[in-house]
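REQUEST FORM: STRUCTURE PREDICTION
Request ID: SP-0412
Submitted by: Lab K.M.
Chain count: 1
Length (residues): 500
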Amino acid sequence: MIKLTFWVIPFFLLTAPAHADYRDDIGYNQLQSELGINTPDGTGTKVTQVEAAIGAGDFNTGSWMPNTVSTQFTGKTIIDQSFPSSNGISSHATGVAQLFYGNTSSMAPGIIEVDIYSASNWMQSGFLSAGSTLVPSVSGSRIANHSWVGELANAHDVLDILHRIDWLVDEDEFIQVVGVNNGLVQKPLISNAFNVIAVGRTDGQHEKGTMALDSVYASDRSGHDLVVPFGTTSSATAVVSGAAAMLIEQAQIIAEGPAAVISNGDTIYNGERSEVIKAIMMAGADRATQNFHTIAQITDYRADAINQAQNGLDVRFGAGQLNVYNNYQIMDAGQQSNMQDGGAATVDWFGWDYDANFGGAQDSNNIASYRFATSEVGGDQLTVSLVWNINIEDNRRPGFNPSATLHNLDLFLYDVTDGNEDLFASSTSAIDNTENLWVVLDGGRDYELRVVAVDDEDFNWDFALAWRVSSFTPVPLPAGFWFFLTGLLGLVRFRFRSGS
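STATUS: Completed
RESULT:
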């Protein structure tokens, strides 16, 4: 028997004007003003929404469906994939759905196909098959949103689920966007997985770091990747899921890299890879904010040693606040291969790369270099994120194999002016699967980024790198105010049992 405990992440029920406000702060309105009807909106992307059941006495009861008759969902096909089916409407699920794919309340109204699961059914017989020897199912979805948190009775059961989620992301390119717990209490399900995009709040009022589960899924890893200016992580997670759908549509349009067919039969391009989407979002995030619709700001990113994560992030804010305008610019700059793979002598100020075969035998192909043209003006800000997935060994044969290998990649920035090689900055965590830089460049210098494989053993693995260079401007105190409804849906706790 697996004992499951879930929490619905509290959710602000916001009015339409407040929705418009958050889109100002994360760059959406700026992007839309430039692109108009050409703004990506998630068209063509099928998604999944996983919800903790409201009013559940056990896993067979409760409600997890959004209100499908709402005008926010007109024209959409929303199917309850759990068995038994939801016994009613969940206000929490409705609020999440509105921000994820609502017709006027989200950034991704082009999403029209949605599968809904209860969290317990999704983790067990409905999809992941946790607690069994079966492998997870294959989904037609490209993104799953998880605005819930939970815990299990023992670390072995937690690891079983995390292994399966990490395998699902890497094997099937099924992007999992997950919320961390509101408040300081750590809940490992499911944000402690490596390959997910974990989301917090710009005010920093959420759990930090990870729990110790074994020697690989260790404590003190960077606990979340992005923040969004909402009062709950439920809302923030839904917004990031919509932003991921925008990037997938954009990647399909630019069609960079060789096409590949994934497990569900979809043809994808390099820009749609889970590592690329995550790297672009992290590199595009604002490490300093000028929000005008919330008092929450980022003004002291990594300023104090106590807030400096080992992989170059801030333990409170991850890579910073989501910025979909920056995301678009990075994706639009296109894939730019490293010099070892035949790339150009210099890369643009915005860009990304997906290297499908890195590491090599006997230290071959263990360095990937990217050189920037000389900047005559000092003070430009370089933001870089390197992302790779943890490797879960299973190959879809009977009997799920959860063996996990975390390859060790490091990120270095060198000043290579006049043929010299002077280390300028680095990110060298041994426990994370992202490395990140945020540095101000000197003028009149040449710089080279290097991804370096530091594992002792031979391996052949893939990674994504995303970067942007922008003018550095000190952030003034904002003049804006936080306009929101003060009603807060309290934290609701549910317990139930299910067979393994």
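NOTES: Residues 2-327+483-498 form a domain with the Rossmann fold fold (CATH 3.40.50.200).
Reviewed by: T.R.
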